[in-house]
Amino acid sequence: MLDMVIQQPILAALIALVSLGLVFGALLGFAAEKFKVDGDPVIDQIDELLPQTQCGQCGFPGCRPYAESIASGDAINKCPPGGQATINAIASLLDVPAPDLDEEHGQESEVKTVAYIREDECIGCTKCIQACPVDAILGAAKLMHTVIVDECTGCDLCVEPCPVDCIDMLPVEQDISQWQWSAPQTPDGLIATDGMNSPNLAGQDNPEPNREDAA
Amino acid sequence: MRKTWLTPGGVHPPENKQQSLTQPIGELPIPDRLVVPLSQHIGAPSIACVKVGDCVLKGQKIADSAGSVSVAVHAPTSGTITAIEARPVAHSSGMTAPCIEISNDGLDQWIASEGIADFEHTSPSALLSVITEAGIAGMGGAGFPTAVKLNPGFQRPIDTLIINATECEPYITADDAIIRERAEEIIEGVRILSHILGNPSNILIGIEDNKPEAIAALRPHIQDTGISLVSFPTKYPSGGEKQLIYILTGKELPSGQIPADIGTVCVNIGTIYAIKRAVVDAQPLISRVTTVTGKACAINRNYNVLIGTAVSHLLQHNNFDQQACSRVVMGGPMMGFSLTSEDVPIVKTSNCILAPSYQEIPEDEPAQPCIRCGMCAEVCPASLLPQQLFWYSQAKDHDRLQAHNLFDCIECGACSYVCPSNIPLVQYYRNSKGEIKTAQQEKVKSDHARERFEFHKQRIEQAEQEREAKRAARREAAKQAKSTTAGSGSAADIVAAAQARAAAKKLSPEQQQAKLERAVTSAEMRAQKAQEKLDSATANNDTEEKLNVFSAALTAAQQKLDQAKARLAEHK
């Protein structure tokens, strides 16, 4: 064996390289099969970031189709329910600059809403039930319908099909358990002369504060 | 002298505790109306079990505990329920929450009940249910249902019971006063707790060395009881649960874990007193000791206050000077919050009402830019990096905030206290904590919506497929039928068969004539009737309009008759 290597160095090198190639090729082939990724993981990641209201304001029938479209190069600023926060999140995921929300698709709303059916006026036509993308409306033909508030995403797709206009989008009521601290106001004027207009300093007619005594 | 450990950070604000300790715990006249909130604890709000108009006795249960993490609520005095509705409550938001209003009947009549004197022969589970039913939730400030804390389960054996008598926050002396006056009852409460927890090997009372009278009051009662009284140097915030556990045991509570995970239970001393009252004296938690202090009040003192008493009632009895007061704070100057209204009721967690003058607590000075001095990091008792958290909070960088352990922040306010730029750091952290929690909830909700949407889509697709399958089946059946008829004969046969069917449908000439004759007869009859109607109308001198109608009908009938006759003649 050693003799052959010494006598035929070219042939030996060739055999060695080819066998190495075969071994690594097999290894890579095996790994490609073993760790195969089904589908495009970017679509899943984008879909995770979208608000899942399924409202279709982006022009796609639901959040996942829009995620697929973004993955294949569509604009990322077509989602009004997600607003700027969603745009920023997708931008940082895809490593692209974050544009402003495209107003053509609707405006970002501060207040979350849910659908509410005025039940006396409902004629039981089931049109809203068919329109609801998340099956959040309960009811049957010629029987009154109602919205399951916890399931409603506030997409307002049910409002338009209602023939008697008995669906309202009501703001979600905030109670004490959902209340949260707001961010402190950033001070605007800090130079002494600005203080005249600053709400923080205005009306400071109390005696000179004594910091030594302050607790 | 037992070894104590030194926590990182901490500050030494002026204590201001002496002024409220000059007099013993006082009693207040019962106000005419008491407003008792249904949610005074962490967990599900209690469920009202009385109606408007009901008469209740002092100590009678007016709301049941809702679920496992909840407690009951009781009537603080006897009287009539006058309202069950949303009222402003003591909360940083100044919002309303469901409350029960009781109008005092002046009798202050207790409900009949019997305590458990022999608690050592009562099962711990029975005692825990007494504690829940007595409405006891942590009185140190958080309001966590005590029975839940005392029931950590079999997986977590408890070897250390810590009684928190630290009371590290300036101005507050409620625990100090209660120890001075009721040390014996407190020690009995500790024994009840020890029995519930299966007699843990270490029972430690942690107290700061700025309360010598309280230490002296406790000392005679702990002899030969196995309870150790540990005093340690005063520093804010030593009274935080994590901090106190470290000071007394040297064990650091890992992030995201509860004391029971390291075999420890930590209970406030005011809660211990309430437990003793509930178990031995059968008195539910309807009152608590609250400090009323601050230079805007002429009298600074501790009171035994009924739950539901309005803050304004307390202030009035202390000669409160509205003009001199910068703000009314519930809790201490470090962790308390300003009240938006003085009509809010005292709840189970209200340990102090602070009415400072402008000199004591000046208005907030405007915040200036962070100069990165690092003083906040030096005083942070949780060893966090407050200045980094501040940047990330401003940038709303939730991932980095969590990576820097924002949720280990106990909101003690030491960082804000030392900040030379007056930055309201704690408010930034509270805001970020709220945002992160909301984002997490939204995530759960959106995942749920996605699931429902996928299911909806799948269902619609399935229905469509079923319809398509039915259509295909029908098409197949039609094809089958066609092929069987086509298979039986040639095209000519089919034409012949169709002609035969058409011929069969055709009437014979005799039948046709009979049909036409019938038509003529009926047309004649109709014309005759129309003539009769016209005649009778003329005889009755009807209006011209009616006559016109009848004559038109007659003309139409005659035309039809003519047509029928013509068709009959044609056929013949």
- Largest interface here, residues on each chain? A-B, 40 and 53 residues
The strand order across the widest sheet of chain B is: 1-14-13-17-15-16
For this structure, the CATH topology of the domain at 41-105 in chain A is 3-methyladenine DNA Glycosylase II, Chain A, domain 3
Quickly count the helices of chain A. 6
Low-confidence stretches of chain A: 197-215
What is the subunit arrangement here?
Answer: heterodimer
**First-last Cα distance of chain B:** 139 Å
Counting DSSP H or I runs of 4 or more residues, the number of helices of chain B is: 15
Strand content of chain A: 5-15%
Q: What's the quick description here?
A:
Chain A is mainly alpha-helical. Chain A contains six helices and four strands; from the N terminus they run H-H-H-H-H-E-H-E-E-E.
Report on the architecture of this protein.
The complex is a heterodimer of chains A (215) and B (572). By secondary structure, chain A is mainly alpha-helical. Chain A has six helices and four strands, in the order αααααβαβββ. Chain A has a two-stranded antiparallel sheet. Chain A has a two-stranded antiparallel sheet with strand order 2-3. In chain A, α3 crosses α4. By secondary structure, chain B is α/β, with parallel strands linked by helices. Among the domains of chain B are: 337 residues, 3-Layer(aba) Sandwich (Rossmann fold), CATH 3.40.50; 63 residues. Chain B is 42% helix and 14% strand. Chain B contains 15 helices and 17 strands. The longest helix of chain B is centred in the C-terminal third of the chain and has 64 residues. Chains A and B meet through loops of A and α12 of B.
